Amino acid sequence: MKRGFTIIELLVTLAIIAILAAVGVAVMSQVMANSKSKLTQAELDDLAMMDTTLVHKVGIQPVDMTQFLQAWQSLHCALIGKPQHWVCEPSTLNKLPGVQYGLINAPGSPVQIKGVVAIDDAWGRPIVLHNGVFQSAGYSGKMGNADNLYSH
Fold first, then answer.
1. What tens digit of pLDDT does each residue of 73-115 get?
2. Does an H or E element contain 25, and which?
């Protein structure tokens, strides 16, 4: 009477499990890449809307990300209280997922306040503003590739 499994049966079972695991990992990797692309595209589109608002309210078209961040934050900061101090109200900018904070100059003042100094995409790379278009290097991390993302 036969007991247990043969070595061939065990190897076939392990091979099937390995194939299923490899397919699962590949599918999950693609799902993660797609979700990061969609998150970054939404972030770029939010920035483009903010840029349009900035142009209408202030009348300037920022030439780079630093100028954009400074101009946007100047719309949302005020000198208040006694003694006076700078306060920046929360805005769409603060709600973006890749926001990095640091010290910025308060509007029209040499005083340094906490503000947004950079915005990263879902891969942790900086979003840039070039010729009026917000850009992400995408999955590859290199500009000029097919996976780059641009604001609409």
1. 888 877 777 777 777 777 778 788 888 888 888 777 777 888 8
2. helix 7-58
The 3-state secondary structure of 62-74 reads: CCCHHHHHHHHHH
Report the distance separating Cα 137 and Cα 149, nearest Å.
7
The pLDDT assigned to 47 comes to 92
DSSP 85: E
Sign of CA dihedral 86, 108, 95, 55: positive
Both structure tokens of 117: 């100094």
Task: Report the distance separating Cα 78 and Cα 4, nearest Å.
Answer: 77
Q: Listing from the earlier edge strand, what are the strands of the sheet with 133-136?
A: 128-130, 133-136, 149-150
Model pTM greater than 0.70? yes
Q: Are 51 and 64 within 8 A, CB to CB? A: no
Radius of gyration of the chain (CA): 24
Q: Whole-angstrom Cα distance, residue 42 to residue 45?
A: 5
